[in-house]
Amino acid sequence: MTTPQSNIRRATVIGAGAWGTCLARHLAENHLSVKLWAYETEVVEAINAKHENSVFLPGVSLPASLTATSSFEEALSDSDLLLLAAPSHAMRLVISKMAPVFSKAIPIVVASKGIEETTLKLMTQVLQELLPSHWAPGITVLTGPSFAAEVCQSKPTTVLLAGHDSTLTTQLQSVFMTSTFRVYTGNDMIGAQLGGALKNVMAIAAGVVDGLNLGGNARAALITRSLTEIIRLGVALGADVHTFYGLSGLGDLVLTCTGSLSRNYSVGFKLGQGTSLEHVLKDTITVAEGIRTTRAAMSLATQLDVEMPIIQGIHALLFENKPARQAVEELMSRSAKEETYLSLKSSDSSRKPSPQE
Q: Is residue 209 located within the same domain as residue 111?
């Protein structure tokens, strides 16, 4: 399925958290008429009356061409483009409720980052399960290092748009591209999604390191070894190793592991300082996707026999009551090993390593 960019005039964004609202604003400022679906009545009322999402994106003015609704029928009426930014754990329910409203196949951009806990499926795989098969070619993924607050301040941002239909991704690239929001295209949707999901877990780990005041050496080591683990699992699931050295892998990993605007980093930082997970979650209204993703990643690692000690350590910290300092000490006291890596030479690019390489 391909849709000429010139035909995309009306967009629907599902999910009015900070990122969904930010992307809706971005599309509206890029001359599209945008309907933003929100679960919360107070969010809908604030956007329509005050042109501001005072709950999840306070202080950011929204264009008049962006309107909000809690009705799927109203949100999807005459839409040319669907962007999904609902939390990953709610994606199946949201799509199930939306599906009966769809009247035609339109391009879908998935901007949610996560892995479904019960099925261990990526968000595009959930979509493919719930929607008619002829919708599949129009499914794409938008991911990469992109804090909503900085995008809304027009600070330079670069992201990846991945999809199997290169004509469609090129057309959507022009829909999103601005002088401060640069979009690259790719075709590895598995790698793009795994990089975006797993970096949230690693950001919790980075926050723990900083919360324990372990220093820059430890943080650098954590980021480097996190990338190794992401690559291991990604390749085991059929992703292209090259993807993880790009925006959705290394780029997003560095941002979320070093930026104070990261919700997942903030959770880890508080845990490192000794705050219980229960109290951390009570103090925030936003979703830290890395907590749920930790469970899913741990299940995938076990299922595929992939060695992921950082994921294992964060899982023990979050769900097994292991003290943060003990989790770090156990990581550091693992048996000595040789550092190995995957070759990026074209002749070796198709080689898949053993899970423990």
A: no
First to last CA, the chain: 39
**What six digits make up the tokens of 265?**
């980093």
Q: Is residue 339 part of a domain?
A: yes
- Please give the structure tokens belonging to residue 220: 């650098």
From the candidates 199, 282, 322, 352, give the one annotated as an active-site residue.
199
pLDDT at 149 over 90: yes
User: 155 or 278: which carries more pLDDT confidence?
Assistant: 155
Contacts of 54 (CB under 8 A, 6+ apart): 46
In the three-class reduction of DSSP (H, G, I as helix; E, B as strand; rest coil), residue 246 is classed as: coil
pTM to 2 decimals?
Answer: 0.92
Domain of residue 224: give its range: 190-348
3-state secondary structure 115-149: ECCCCCCEHHHHHHHHCCHHHHHHEEEEECCCCHH
Active site residue 199: yes
